[in-house]
Design goal:
- With 366 residues, the protein is an alpha+beta fold.
- Among the domains are: 45 residues, no CATH class; 122 residues, Band 7 domain (Tetrahydropterin Synthase, Chain A, 2-Layer Sandwich), CATH 3.30.479.30.
- Helices cover 49% and strands 20% of the residues.
- The protein has eleven helices and 13 strands.
- Strands 6, 9, 10 and 11 form a four-stranded antiparallel sheet that branches.
- A hairpin with a 5-residue loop joins strand 9 and strand 10.
- Helix 5 crosses helix 7 and helix 8 crosses helix 9.
- It is elongated, with a radius of gyration of 58 Å.
- The protein starts with 14 loop residues before the first helix and ends with a strand.
Length: 366
């Protein structure tokens, strides 16, 4: 039997095989060493990697965490010796508790997460949005399995614990900001205990209301309470406006009465002192004092009345028909006022004419 040779000699299709065999016979083992060196360089070159801005690289050697690299060009031993995971630590991520956002952008409630029991044994529907970022990429990758699921479960626990310590009115209306702050604080403590490498940046209530079945009735109760508070506040405002004003008016009347009393007392004392002084002067000089009092009384009585002086030859029958009052007011002499007497000693008490303000017209005829 003839010996079989492959590839068979002869034929153009096997010429390149013969040439390669001849080249290997001439170069010897150096060809294999060079090829292996090129492959080694290419393998080592695969160890370069780039970490972008806002990212960190987590290097692992045979699955064990070795180092965390910063943004830029870095090197690690090629696979399978070392591997690297690049984690974005600056991007803000979100977890939804009590609802889910659909692809169309609509919010769909998840009642098994949203319905919670309050301190006063009422059921409230709460939906919260958690925003977070990665602060420790190594812990985020290796310490917990499914860190976002752990975050969602911890957020639900923290939210239920916070809502369970408050009344339903506080959760819905008055203390919403406090619910957010306490939930975030509780959630941060849980995540630090679990060593998840997650930093919570914001906890925001989306919905905090009564369940859909009783929401209308609950809103009616809330509106009634608000109306009651509004009426009470209006009544208090009216009270605060009226009472101080009444107190002020009462104080004003009291002060005016005190002032009037002091005025009357001082005036009475002044009149008594003046009368005593006049009496002393009268005892010393009765005639002079009497004459002075008489003149002062006439000055008071005759200070304002209209006086008409006519000569003896004037006809008295014409007097009622003449506008003497107008003529007197238009004459230059009438503009001069009667001189006021100088006060001598202390002015005596006025007579009845002075107290009553009598205006006695005097018509004299010479």
């Amino acid at each position: 039997m003839a010996q079989y040779r492959w590839p068979p000699r002869g034929g153009d299709e096997f010429i390149w095989i013969e040439k390669a065999r001849a080249l290997l016979n001439r170069t010897g083992p150096y060809m294999y060493i060079g090829a292996a060196g090129v492959l080694l360089l290419l393998w080592l070159a695969t160890g370069f990697y780039v970490v972008g801005p806002g990212e960190q690289g987590v290097e692992r050697r045979f699955g064990r965490h070795m180092a965390t690299t910063d943004p830029g060009l870095n090197y690690r031993l090629p696979w399978p010796i070392q591997t690297v995971d690049v984690v974005n630590v600056d991007s803000i991520r979100r977890v939804e508790v009590g609802f889910r956002t659909t692809a169309a952008g609509r919010m769909q409630g998840v009642l098994e997460e949203a319905l919670m029991l309050t301190k006063d044994e009422n059921i409230v529907e709460v939906q919260v949005l958690i925003q977070y970022r990665v602060k420790d990429p190594a812990a985020f990758l290796f310490r917990v399995q499914n860190p976002e699921g752990v975050l969602a479960s911890a957020a639900e626990v923290a939210l239920r614990g916070t809502v369970g310590r408050m009344r339903i009115d506080d959760v819905i209306t008055e203390r919403r900001a406090e619910v957010q702050a306490e939930t975030q604080s509780f959630l941060e403590r849980l995540l630090d205990e679990y060593n998840t490498g997650i930093l919570v940046t914001d906890v925001r209530l989306q919905v905090a209301d009564a369940p859909q079945q009783v929401r209308d009735a609950f809103h009616e109760v809330v509106r009634a309470r608000e109306d009651r508070e509004r009426l009470v506040n209006e009544a208090q405002a009216y009270t605060e406006d009226v009472l101080p004003r009444a107190r002020g008016e009462a104080r004003q009347i009291l002060e005016e009465s005190i002032a009037y009393r002091e005025e009357r007392v001082r005036r009475a004392r002044g009149d008594a002192n003046r009368f005593t002084q006049v009496l002393e002067e009268y005892r010393r000089a009765p005639g002079v004092t009497r004459e002075r009092m008489h003149i002062e009384a006439l000055e008071v009585i005759l200070a304002n009345p209209n006086k008409v002086l006519m000569s003896q030859g004037a006809d008295s029958r014409v007097l009622p028909f003449l506008p003497l009052k107008d003529m007197q007011s238009s004459s230059p002499r009438s503009e001069t006022a009667s001189p006021k007497p100088a006060e001598r000693l202390s002015s005596p008490a006025r007579g009845p004419a002075a107290d009553t303000g009598l205006n006695v017209p005097l018509r004299a005829r010479q």
